[in-house]
């Protein structure tokens, strides 16, 4: 899958067949403080509510402040419990370092949204929503549309008018940049739960009979301690 035919915004895509495509691997990278966690939270919340199987994790610098971070997603038509190790189908760079590090790791039909694309999204957020921070919500809409999600799919889930407008704006970018449905997947998850690794550890500890927990106050596992 690695190698040629990488695509940036504005280039014509060769669409993969749904029969062959069963999952999509995404990487969103940037600097601490650029809202990466917010992107992950909104994207995974909507994927869960739409009925998609996914696994998400993150790599971040061991610093009190700053540093390059990466949020990684594997969205699939069947249950997944780890990253696949396959080339990235979508790389989103909120900084220049992301593209430098991962552009060469794109799959054959992969999408790279560079810093120039991000700046165009930020400009739209500032012009139409009067807040550049809304660009991350627009980006979530774009990524959902790449996976085949449409505004009709979101109609029953998103009731806030402004939030829906932001997601639709992102879908418009995907259409304009010829990315819409590039890695379309079927939502096949039923009777599922969404929780993070900290919560999984907490559940396992409780089921195993744990009655006492002590922790070091750095990157605190809040959800473990709240169970």
Topology summary:
Layout: E1 7-8, E2 23-31, H1 36-50, E3 53-59, E4 68-76, E5 88-93, H2 96-102, E6 106-113, H3 115-129, H4 135-146, H5 151-154, H6 161-176, H7 197-207, H8 222-226
Parallel strand pairs: 1-6, 2-5, 5-6
Antiparallel strand pairs: 2-4, 3-4
Helix pairs in contact: 1-4, 3-4, 4-6
Rg over alpha carbons: 18 Å
Identify the CATH homologous superfamily of the largest domain. Answer: Pyruvate-ferredoxin oxidoreductase, PFOR, domain III
Q: Which fold name is given in CATH as the topology of the largest domain?
A: Pyruvate-ferredoxin Oxidoreductase, domain 3
Indicate the CATH architecture of the largest domain: 3-Layer(aba) Sandwich
User: N-to-C terminal Cα separation, in Å?
Assistant: 42 Å
Q: How many independent structural domains?
A: 2
Please work out how many helical segments DSSP would assign.
Answer: 8
Uncertain stretches: 1-21
Oligomer: single chain
Count of individual beta strands: 6
Order of helices and strands: EEHEEEHEHHHHHH
Strand content: 15-25%
Largest sheet: 6 strands, mixed
Q: Quick gist of this model?
A:
GO terms for molecular function: oxidoreductase activity, acting on the aldehyde or oxo group of donors. This protein has 227 residues and is of the alpha/beta class.
Protein model, in words:
The N terminus is likely disordered. The chain starts with 6 loop residues before the first strand and ends with a helix. A hairpin with an 8-residue loop joins strand 3 and strand 4. It has 227 residues and is an alpha/beta fold. The chain contains eight helices and six strands; from the N terminus they run ββαβββαβαααααα. The radius of gyration is 18 Å and the shape is globular. The chain has two domains: 170 residues, Pyruvate-ferredoxin oxidoreductase, PFOR, domain III (Pyruvate-ferredoxin Oxidoreductase, domain 3, 3-Layer(aba) Sandwich); 30 residues, no CATH class. It has a six-stranded mixed beta sheet, with helices on both faces. Helix 4 packs across helix 6. InterPro entries: Pyrv/ketoisovalerate_OxRed_cat, Pyrv_flavodox_OxRed_cen. One of its GO terms (molecular function) is oxidoreductase activity, acting on the aldehyde or oxo group of donors. Pfam families: POR (PF01558).
């Amino acid at each position: 899958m690695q190698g040629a035919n990488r695509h940036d915004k504005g280039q014509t895509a060769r669409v993969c067949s749904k029969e062959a495509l069963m999952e999509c691997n995404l990487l969103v990278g940037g600097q601490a403080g650029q809202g990466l966690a917010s992107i992950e939270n909104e994207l995974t919340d909507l994927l869960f509510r739409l009925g998609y199987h996914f696994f998400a994790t993150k790599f971040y610098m061991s610093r009190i402040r700053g540093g390059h971070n990466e949020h990684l997603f594997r969205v699939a038509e069947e249950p997944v419990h780890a990253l696949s190790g396959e080339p990235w189908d979508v790389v989103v760079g909120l900084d220049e370092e992301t593209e430098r590090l991962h552009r060469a790791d794109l799959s054959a039909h992969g999408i790279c949204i560079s810093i120039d694309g991000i700046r165009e999204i930020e400009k739209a957020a500032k012009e139409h929503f009067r807040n550049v921070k809304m660009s991350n919500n627009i980006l979530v809409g774009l990524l959902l549309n790449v996976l085949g999600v449409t505004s009709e799919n979101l109609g029953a889930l998103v009731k806030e008018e402004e939030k829906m407008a932001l997601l639709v704006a992102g879908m418009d970018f995907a259409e304009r940049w010829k990315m819409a449905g590039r890695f379309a997947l079927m939502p096949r998850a039923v009777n599922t739960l969404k929780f993070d690794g900290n919560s999984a550890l907490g559940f396992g500890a409780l089921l195993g009979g744990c009655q006492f927990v002590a922790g070091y106050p750095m990157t605190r596992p809040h959800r473990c301690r709240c169970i």
